[in-house]
Amino acid sequence: MAFPASKFIPGIGKTFKIAAAEIQPGVLVGTLTADAEGRESDGIADAFFDAATVARTFGDDAFTTAVIFQLFDTNGIDKTTADEIVAAGAFARSKLAADALAKHGVPLNTIWQPTGIPHDATGGAGVFSIERATGVLTLEGEVCDNTTKTDIAYFEYVLPDNYKAGGLITIRVACAQISSSGVGTGVTGTTSDIAMTVIKQAHGAVGADLVASGSPQTFAAMDTWYDKDVVVTPTGLVPGDKLQVQITTRSIDSNAGAGSIQSEISEVIVLHDVQG
Fold first, then answer.
1. Sequence-distant (≥ 6) Cβ neighbours of residue 237 within 8 angstroms
2. Strands, E assignment, the chain
3. CA-CA to 188 of 20 to 30 Å: which in 61, 89, 113, 169?
4. What pLDDT, in 10s, does the model give residues 16-28?
């Protein structure tokens, strides 16, 4: 039998079990799979569900897709242990499956200058400019010729409610050292680097740098895009915590007259474990 659509909420791969006391003798409980709209799609043909019993155990809104019920014998004997039973429609997020290092993009137009204001097309000393060319949005550092230029940018990231407390966190920046010639001919900029710091901000104060590894990193070649990752120490971090990330690039050119170089950033991603 199929339950009304109101009995189901979207979800994938959740497993629930019904206590033996809630199953009437002689009722066979099998497997029911429902789509996102709550319609039975490929349930076991000979499985029967006692609607009143199930509602009493889980409540009206506790169903999901791919729901699996324990099989009971005709005397209502449960094969599971008490600590496997989820009842009364309450499913803690901690009971749900976790995914490692899910990607969360950070729009470049939400990254700000050291003073806290948005980037513009002009930039300046120590400040990226934001530019859009051939449909691609990038942050571009100062042009550097036979000197060193350092540019700094910041963004905030609030760990969402599905962040797995204490789970893995990585900050990834897609970046490059771009030469004025476009091929890096005669330009010696491979000692240029990118560094990141990650701090937790709360109650008007910030903590220590949480970066465990990956900062700074140099560039193996000019005019080549790299994903530069830093690993964050997640100890004690929970959903709702606010992280402040500083990105610092240095363009280092030591060859006068051979052309200029500059740092470019095309993408910023926060990867972290999620649950539910």
1. 159, 163, 165, 166, 169, 200
2. 8-9, 31-32, 63-64, 67-68, 98-106, 129-133, 136-140, 148-158, 169-179, 193-202, 205-206, 211-213, 217-218, 226-232, 242-252, 261-275
3. 113
4. 444 444 433 333 3
Domain count, the chain: 2
Domain co-membership, 135 together with 229: yes
Q: Final residue of a domain: which of 63, 91, 119?
A: 91
User: Which residues, at least 6 apart from 205, have a Cβ–Cβ distance to it below 8 Å?
Assistant: none
- pLDDT tens for 171-214 read 999 999 998 865 555 576 789 999 999 999 999 999 999 999 99
Phi and psi for 253 in degrees, rounded to 5?
-120, 125
pTM: 0.69
- C-alpha torsion sign, points 154, 105, 196, 143: negative
19 and 115, same domain (yes or no): no
The alpha carbon of residue 148 and the mean position of all alpha carbons in its chain are separated, in whole angstroms, by 34
Backbone angles phi, psi at 41, to 5 degrees: -110, -40
Separation of alpha carbons 149 and 139, rounded Å = 14
pLDDT at 147 over 80: yes
Residue 122 DSSP class: S
Judge contact between 272 and 176, C-beta under 8 A. no
Range of the domain at 2: 1-91
Q: What are phi and psi of 83, to 5 degrees?
A: -75, -5
